Amino acid sequence: MKQFGVVTINTCNFELDQLFNQDFDYSRDANVFLELYIQDSKKNLINVPVFISNFRNSENEYPNKPLDYTKSKMVRRFFITETISGVTTSGGYYQGKTPEYIRLASLVKLTVQLDSEVLETIRRPYLFVTYDEKEVALLKR
Questions:
Q1: Whether residue 42 has pLDDT greater than 80
Q2: Which residues of 103-129 are buried (b: 16+ CB within 10 A; e: fewer)?
C-alpha cells in the first residue's frame, strides 16, 4: 500500500531484446488491451483514465499536446505491445506473418497528485503512456 503526501518515485526498465526473445509469438503474445483500476478505502474499484501523449485523431491532429487534465482525450484501455498494424501484407496477420514494425509503450507513468482544494484527498490518478514504433529486423533475436 502506498502512502500519499510523501514524494515517491518507482522506476523499472525492460530491454527490448529481453521482451522479444526467441519464444515470442508476435500474434499470440502481443495485442492485449489492458485496463487499470485502483481500489479505494471502501474496496470499490475505480477506473484509471489513460492519457496517450502522442495520440493522433482522424483529422491528423494531436489533441493531447500539451497535457491538459480537463481538455485532453483520455481512454480506458492501453497496450504494451501491438503487432497487427505492422503486418504489411494483405491477410498476413491471419497467416501468421511476422510484422515489419511493432508498436510498444516506451513510457508508462502513473501520476497521482494531491488535491490542493480538499484536505487529505488525491485527484483521480491517470496513466501517462507514450508509444514508439520499432523495426522488427533491428531487434536482437
A1: yes
A2: bbbeeeeeeeeeeeeeeeeeeeebbeb
| Residue indicated by cell numbers 505492422 | 86
In this prediction, residue 19 carries a pLDDT of: 63
pTM of the model: 0.75
| Beta-strand runs (E) in 2-115 | 34-35, 37-39, 45-47, 50-52, 74-75, 77-78, 81-82, 101-111
Map residue 136 onto helix, strand or coil.
helix
Nearest in space to 133 (alpha carbons), one of 54, 78, 74, 60: 54
H or E segment to which residue 17 belongs? helix 16-19
